[in-house]
Design a protein that fits this description.
Layout (H helix, E strand, L loop, with lengths): L2 E3 L2 E3 L5 H5 L16 E5 L9 H19 L2 H14 L9 E4 L7 H18 L1 H15 L1 E8 L8 E7 L4 E14 L2 E15 L15 E4 L3 E5 L2 E3 L4 E3 L6 H21 L3 E9 L3 H16 E6 L4 E6 L8 E6 L6 E5 L9 H13 L4 H4 L15 H17 L1 H13 L5 H7 L4 E4 L3 H21 L10 H8 L4 H29 L1
Parallel strand pairs: 3-7, 13-16
Antiparallel strand pairs: 1-2, 4-18, 5-6, 5-10, 7-8, 8-9, 11-12, 13-17, 14-15
Length: 508
């Protein structure tokens, strides 16, 4: 199906039969689970969602994510996640395109590789890949404006400009009409229009910016999100969402610990002053006189020659003065002990570990007393395995951005039509760089373990186990791997036989 960008159509022209063919109708609005705001119009059931209020809530959520990312422990966890996801190698290309499973001609493959490299240059991914991935992870979404020369669209994408997620929202406008189904009236979906609304609002600007939105075509924006959608509010939430609550609790307990230490750390004196049988007013006056007598301090300033009265005002961290009536033990000075459990941090450590778990980062990575293990890969903990799977999941989600941009670029330049793209898009793969040391270590140990099992089972091959079963279940070779290996073995055997015959001929 052709796409419309900036008023012109790109793609194959549809035949008349396809244009006139009637689509399957339904009364249910399709949901893409991408946080789109749905506006339903038409009929007595037509409703309108308050865009301003909904956008405000979502923007506040993004601001919460950004504020949380400034917390040291959260920032450290995000650094670990981004560092594991984006790994630069010698050619500074952390994500490589893999078209091994794509069934197209080599010429088309070379063009796809070329256009993919062009997209990386437009994004400046060689230098900004780390920042782009971090921004997407924190904000839970990323928007890019696809800028095309409308006079010469065959030139492809000219520029990719990042858009602040707080200023743009995706809208789905649904038109419904009432139809009679039996004795009931049912609203059927007549048409669906998807577009984006951009509102350039800046609260900190000296001159207020207009709040009127700009309607932007769907194909002019590249939009990817975290894939986590709150079904109750139809709002995209980020990977930091579940860390907000433990982070707030950690902040509160840390503030409470600091306040307690400041207020309970010093040892203060308690003065019990004997006031005899003086009336209440005179007793209080006598107590104040005693306080001022011992608390006022006369100092001599040698620079000016003045005598100054440094009056120390009483506050909660200083001494206490208590009147004592006649019959007591007279004037007495005692000490109020300071806090005895100032070194207890169990509550803080508990919430800190809970925060790490909510960020999907192994706690052992964050604890400074835990050393770095360079041993066997079999010693990797279960948390590290779960962390690796989490990294793989967010990597796959992030690659949606390259698929969208590559689709637009290939269609604009006429490399293929949209129908052709739909046929090959599911076979396109992206390869991320991995830590070479651990990858090689893991592969080496896997091969070693398989060969050890193969050695132990060698005497049973042909008696209890077949060679094909051994290759599929022990060596884990697929049908394709078996065919490739057999062909290579046959080729090597033929080469060795030719070499042997040549050596015999030379000897003769």
């Amino acid at each position: 199906m052709p796409i419309d960008i900036f008023g012109f159509t790109i793609g194959k022209k549809q035949p008349v039969e396809a244009k006139n063919s009637k689509k399957q109708e339904s009364f249910v609005v399709p949901d893409n689970y991408d946080g789109t705001y749905t506006l339903e119009t038409g009929g007595v059931f037509g409703t309108l969602i308050d865009f301003t209020g909904a956008a405000k809530n979502e923007n506040q959520l993004i601001y919460q994510f950004r504020n949380a990312a400034m917390y040291p422990e959260v920032d450290q966890a995000i650094e670990d996640i981004v560092n594991e996801s984006i790994i630069m190698d010698a050619d500074r290309k952390p994500i490589k395109l893999d078209l091994a499973k794509v069934e197209v001609s080599p010429v088309i493959k070379n063009k796809i590789y070329k256009e993919y490299d062009g997209i990386l240059r437009l994004l400046d991914f060689h230098n900004k890949g780390y920042d782009i991935f971090r921004r997407w992870y924190i904000d839970s979404k990323v928007y890019y404006h696809i800028i095309v020369d409308t006079d010469r669209p065959e030139k492809g994408i000219r520029e990719l400009r990042a858009i602040d997620p707080t200023k743009i929202k995706k809208i789905k406008k649904v038109n419904k009409e009432q139809r009679r189904v039996g004795n009931n009236t049912v609203p059927f979906v007549k048409s669906i229009e998807e577009f984006y609304v951009y509102v350039n609002t800046d609260k900190n600007a000296s001159v207020p910016t207009p709040t009127q939105g700009i309607k932007i075509a769907k194909d002019s924006i590249c939009y990817i999100h975290s894939g986590i959608v709150d079904s109750r509010a139809n709002r995209v939430v980020g990977y930091i969402q579940k860390a907000i609550r433990p982070l707030n609790m950690l902040r509160q307990i840390e503030d409470a610990v600091v306040i307690y230490r400041i207020s309970r750390a010093p040892e203060r004196r308690i003065f019990y002053v004997d006031v005899g049988n003086l009336p209440k007013n005179k007793a209080e006056q006598y107590l104040r006189d005693i306080m001022n007598r011992y608390r006022n301090k006369l100092t001599y300033d040698s620079a000016t020659g003045e005598v100054k009265d440094d009056r120390n005002h009483l506050h909660m961290l200083e001494d206490f003065w208590m009147p004592r009536r006649e019959g007591g033990r007279g004037t007495e000075v005692t000490t109020l002990d300071g806090g005895q459990n100032l070194g207890e941090m169990e509550d803080v450590n508990y919430l800190l570990k809970k925060l790490y778990r909510s960020l999907n980062v192994p706690v052992s990575r964050m604890e400074p007393e835990t050393g770095f293990n360079m041993g066997r890969s079999a010693e990797i903990t279960r948390d590290e395995v779960k962390f690796f799977k989490f990294i793989e999941k967010i990597r796959m989600r992030f690659c949606e951005m390259f698929l969208q941009l590559l689709k637009v670029q290939l269609i604009l330049k006429g490399v293929m039509s949209e129908n052709d793209w739909e046929l090959i898009s599911s076979a396109i793969r992206f390869k991320f760089n991995h830590d070479s040391y651990y990858t090689e270590l893991k592969e080496t140990e896997i091969i070693k373990e398989r060969l050890d099992i193969l050695t132990q089972m060698d005497e049973y091959v042909g008696k209890y186990y077949s060679t094909e079963w051994i290759r599929k279940n022990i060596l884990r070779q697929s049908e394709e791997d078996i065919n490739i290996m057999d062909a290579q073995i046959k080729k090597e055997m033929a080469t060795s036989e030719e070499t042997a015959e040549e050596e015999e001929g030379d000897l003769e």
